[in-house]
Design a protein that fits this description.
Elements lengths: L2 H55 L1 H13 L5 H26 L5 H17 L6 H4 L5 H23 L6
Organism: Dictyobacter arantiisoli
Protein name: DUF4760 domain-containing protein
Keywords: Membrane, Transmembrane, Transmembrane helix
């Protein structure tokens, strides 16, 4: 075997190793992306958990959270501010989730689950009543996302109300 033959074999072997290296880098990137998504999902749960625990522990906070939508105008200035802070905090969490999803840092299934929570939150807390005040605190694309949900819920409520049978 001549030196030229050995050089040709070495070039072929290099090409094979290069292709294997590219595959390994691709595999590592894919695994790293999956681990990042899992870590992001875990972090979202870690962020939301203290809030939910606080609601479970504090009767006054739970009362504020539950009665805020119905009795907002009856609250004193301090309770209104506390209630607005709770709304803003929960919306900020959802804004974070929304932006992570847009950057593909959260799995689609996870995002859909959080979106259901956001939709329930918007409806339960009657965010439509406060959105003109709150929306200025959020990035435009998220504010538009919330507005779309509010409009859809308003439309669905309107249709449901229109289709209700009359009681005689």
């Amino acid at each position: 075997m001549s030196l030229s033959d050995l050089a040709s074999i070495a070039i072929i072997v290099q090409g094979v190793f290069f292709i294997i290296s590219i595959f390994l880098v691709w595999y590592q990137l894919r695994e790293n992306t999956n681990l990042t998504r899992a870590a992001n999902t875990q972090k979202l749960v870690e962020i939301a958990t203290p809030f939910n625990f606080q609601l479970a522990q504090s009767r006054d906070l739970t009362k504020l959270w539950q009665q805020g939508p119905q009795h907002f105008n009856d609250m004193d200035e301090i309770d209104r501010e506390r209630y607005f802070s709770l709304l803003t905090w929960w919306l900020m969490l959802h804004e974070n989730i929304y932006h992570q999803w847009r950057k593909k840092l959260v799995e689609q299934d996870t995002y859909l689950s959080w979106t259901q929570d956001l939709e329930y939150f918007i409806q339960r807390q009657r965010i439509h009543q406060h959105w003109t005040t709150l929306q200025v605190f959020f990035e435009d694309s998220f504010a538009e996302h919330v507005m779309i949900i509010i409009e859809r819920q308003t439309k669905e409520t309107s249709i449901a109300t229109t289709n209700m049978p009359e009681c005689v």
